[in-house]
Amino acid sequence: MNDKDVFIQVRDLTVTYHTRLGPVRAVNHVTFDVYRGEILGLVGESGCGKSTLGKALMRMIFKPAEISSGQIVFNGEDIMTYDQKRLRDFRGRVASMIFQDPMTSLNPVQRVDEHLMEAIEVHAQTKQSKGSLIEQITALIERLGIQSRRLSDYPHQLSGGMRQRVMVGLGLINNANLIIADEATTSLDVIVEAKLVDQLREIRDQYGVTILAITHNIALVAELADRLAVMYAGQMVEIGSVYQVFDQPLHPYTQGLLRSVPSIKLSDDEELYKMAGEPPNLTHPPSGCRFHPRCPHAMTICSQKDPDLLEAAPGHFVHCWLYQDHPDKETPTIEVKE
Ligand SMILES: Nc1ncnc2c1ncn2[C@@H]1O[C@H](COP(=O)(O)OP(=O)(O)OP(=O)(O)O)[C@@H](O)[C@H]1O
Ligand SMILES: [Mg+2]
């Protein structure tokens, strides 16, 4: 994979929900790139804005919510400027699946083969014979690890994992080049989830698609993803290769998060860490860096001014004052070894 091959550029993206209690900036000035063909894991506590960010990438943010600032650049064009027609086409190229619940996106009275054939026919330039259609969907479904006899099943007869793969199949027929896999809050059991990881990897390897994998499960995403993005309270606090983020987590939030995951505890004699405090209420977020009230290293500047996202080492970005010039003479700026 060529790391320089940028697929989607997200710049200064802000998404605001207008609620009775006031505006909630669930995604707050977020900037990052998605590389072509990568699996980018997106992690962070419940309510930090992961799903909102995923939806915003498809411009699936509807009133009373809005994308209140920023650009999402795809093929050199800002999708914020797309009209409805181009937007439909763009969304067709994104296969989005919510782990656990693809039932809502499949037609309950249509069999699997009907779903798939219909999708091929919509895209075909010329009319194809039934035989050729059946051949194509059989090959596709088998590549996705589903036995072809399942083609005559209705969606409710399939397992959750199979339904997700059918969704992926539909996306692939649409030439989807981005799959957004958003795990629902209550997670699947560990074995099913681990199987999904393998399948997502296979799909990426076979079809060269780009995958944004949104999950709570950091240990799992470590196995799945090439890069990891960490969100806290609507902000992107750190992003880098899985190796960089696990080996040298820079943001104090990431450091706490990793130390609180049982399976990636650094050594046996290390106590599992419980991060102090709670994530903020986003109707009244803390000033400056949103993590500062929970941060063991907070300085005066942290409550006053939000830091920039800084590239601390090549490809390793962090949103924290500790790594950039700050006025606190007591705390030295941290140099990051490459
Ligand atoms: N429709 C909505 N109206 C108002 N606020 C919303 C709405 N949807 C989400 N929010 C708020 O936006 C913030 C981010 O929500 P989001 O669902 O994106 O988080 P998440 O990281 O996906 O959480 P989870 O891990 O639980 O799925 C939360 O504070 C949530 O309360
Ligand atoms: Mg979510």
Characterization of this structure:
The protein has 10 helices and 12 strands. By secondary structure, the protein is α/β, with parallel strands linked by helices. The longest helix has 18 residues. The model has no long low-confidence stretch (mean pLDDT 88). Magnesium ion binds next to α1.
Brief summary:
The chain is of the alpha/beta class.
Main sheet summary:
8 strands, mixed
Give the C-alpha Rg: 21 Å
Report strand %: 15-25%
- The helicity comes to 25-40%
Order of helices and strands: EEEHEEHEHHHEHEHEEHHHEE
Number of strands: 12
Distance from N terminus to C terminus (CA atoms, Å) equals 21 Å
Order of strands in the sheet with most strands: 6-7-8-3-9-10-12-11
Bulk shape: globular
Structural class: alpha/beta
Task: Summarize the SSE layout with pairings.
Elements: E1 6-19, E2 22-35, E3 39-43, H1 50-57, E4 65-74, E5 77-78, H2 84-92, E6 94-98, H3 112-123, H4 130-143, H5 160-173, E7 178-182, H6 190-207, E8 210-214, H7 218-224, E9 227-232, E10 235-241, H8 242-247, H9 252-259, H10 300-304, E11 310-313, E12 316-318
Parallel strand pairs: 3-8, 3-9, 6-7, 7-8
Antiparallel strand pairs: 1-2, 1-4, 4-5, 9-10, 10-12, 11-12
Helix pairs in contact: 3-5, 6-7
This protein binds adenosine-5'-triphosphate and magnesium ion.
